[in-house]
Amino acid sequence: MNPELNLRQVDVFRAIVKFGTVTAAAAALGSSQPTLTREVLRLEASVGFQLFERRRQRLHPTARALKLYHAIEEAYSGLDKINASLQRMRAASGEILQVSTLPTFAQSLLPEAVARLHSEAPGLTIEIDNGDPRSQSPISGFNFDIGLIEGEYDDPTTEVIRLGAFRQVCLIPAGHPLASGTGPLRLQDFEDQAFVSLGPKDPYRLILDRLFEEAGVTRRLPVTMQSANGACEMVRSGIGVSILNPLTALGYLGDRVVLRAFAQAPAFEVSALHPVDRPWVDTAGRLTGHLKAICAEAQQRLQALHLI
User: Fold this and answer.
1) Given a cut of 90, is residue 65 above it in pLDDT?
2) What is the DSSP string of 74-99?
3) Which helix (H) or strand (E) holds 124?
4) DSSP string of 212-281?
5) CATH number among 1.10.10.10, 3.30.450.40, 3.20.20.110, 3.40.50.1970, domain 7-91
6) 218/209 Cα distance (integer angstroms)
7) Residue 214 has pLDDT above 80, yes or no
């Protein structure tokens, strides 16, 4: 049975592949050419197959050696991430708060909440990842203090904090026939209308499709978008109407866009997640408080606009 590689042998092998000559690798490692030459011979004896072909005073890795090199580089990339994280911790003058959020909240809820938190804790560093925190788990490893999601969620590995409950609203291009009038719009009002829809797997898209299908209402779908903000941009450009979450929609009100209530509007809930096995940091609680306050303010604004 061949012995396993030690760290010194890995460093020698990596340096030779990277620099191409024993002389250059020795200089990089602070060693001598004769010493490294002997170590290469012992290395090849240890692995049990040839690692290098010697041509024109250079060492060319064999096919097997390249596979080994790629495996080593993958391991080193993990170490690089660890060191990069360590450097961020050293550079931060205060606490580091990690947030994982759906993209729609990174553009609607979070900016104001982060601004309020930074006014209280100017030394705080906040790292925001635009990904679904529900895709993480104790097995893959939680990498957030606070995660922002929409809809229901029930999992024993996370604490769920309700931030706000809303109803979706209609976005109409200014000047569109549906932009005028009072009272909530109904499913039948969208008959034969150009409708900007979310992606085919979006849960709110599926709910709306079912509602229109059950009501026998046919829409035209000229554009499908993966993001709520992208759909709002399409409405603002006059492509069609849409029905979306009110937090994103409010950011477009008055910018060539009219908002109207929707009688059969699906519920839209916003929640924060906190991994139960992750220590609770003070700034996570304060950020959650600001998010709750902003959701309450949005609810009041929607009420004043007669959108709920």
Assistant:
1) no
2) HHHHHHHHHHHHHHHHHH-SS-EEEE
3) none
4) HHHHT---EEEEEESSHHHHHHHHHTTS-BEEE-HHHHHTTTTSSEEEE-BTTPPEEEEEEEEETTSPPP
5) 1.10.10.10
6) 10
7) yes
